[in-house]
Amino acid sequence: MSRRRQIYEGKAKILYEGPEPGTLIQYFKDDATAFNAQKKGIISGKGVLNNRISEHVFQLLGTMGIPTHFIRRLNMREQLIRQVEIVPIEVVVRNVVAGSLAKRLGIEEGMPLPRTIIEYYYKNDELGDPMVTEEHVAAFGWASQDELHDMQDLAIRINDFLSGLFAGVGIKLVDFKLEFGRLWEGDYSRIILADEISPDGCRLWDMSTGEKLDKDRFRRDMGGEVEAYQEVARRLGLLPDGVDSTVLDLDSARKARDGK
Ligand code: TMP
Prior knowledge:
By secondary structure, this protein is α+β, with helices and mostly antiparallel strands. It has seven helices and 13 strands. The strands form three sheets. Strands 8, 9, 10, 11, 12 and 13 form a six-stranded antiparallel beta sheet that branches. A five-stranded antiparallel beta sheet has the order 1-2-3-7-6. A two-stranded antiparallel sheet has the order 4-5.
């Protein structure tokens, strides 16, 4: 049996060489980390859910004209993606005060922001992903001014679209993290959305109860992680009613529901 070449292993995903040049396979693990991997755990079934949720979100973003690395989902834990050069900046978009913003400024979580805030973090595990400004990004050449503008523009469009998508299913999009990559075409590159969009990198609060439906349940030892991720998938129409197993074969479950 031929073994695929592993290109990279991150905290929640593994990248393998793809079937064609310029493609990769993105494998979603059940591993969960927080606080720069000081806290580690397994959320059984998370990889399957994140693969499916991220597929759904990236497909919708694609139809809205947002360029992404997503090509297609291959199976329960893998998707085929375009190979990009990851920009070493995490772009965080915030609509409501929560998490590190609440802590840093001593503001209570839950205050709606009068305007959306975009923050940048330099991707560097040894340094614990420090927050940086546009000035640092430009000065150290992590992204060009044009690339930064493209990332900002895409982040705002993604936020507008996702806020509406989640509001439509009774979920408040509090904040989220995006990663972008350079897609090279000859000597030129353009910025496209990469990584994933899932409850791992978003804060999602139930609109009526305020219940947390995201990785904060793991970060804060609240329990019920996989049930929360399942609830997000269910509301997005990705999880048939009555399916609550943590070993999820979403394809079979959907076919059974639809009688196909
Ligand atoms: P923060 O409030 O901890 O800065 O997080 C802001 C958002 O970014 C939140 O939705 C979680 C997400 N995030 C990640 O996806 N990865 C990270 O390493 C961090 C720190 C946050």
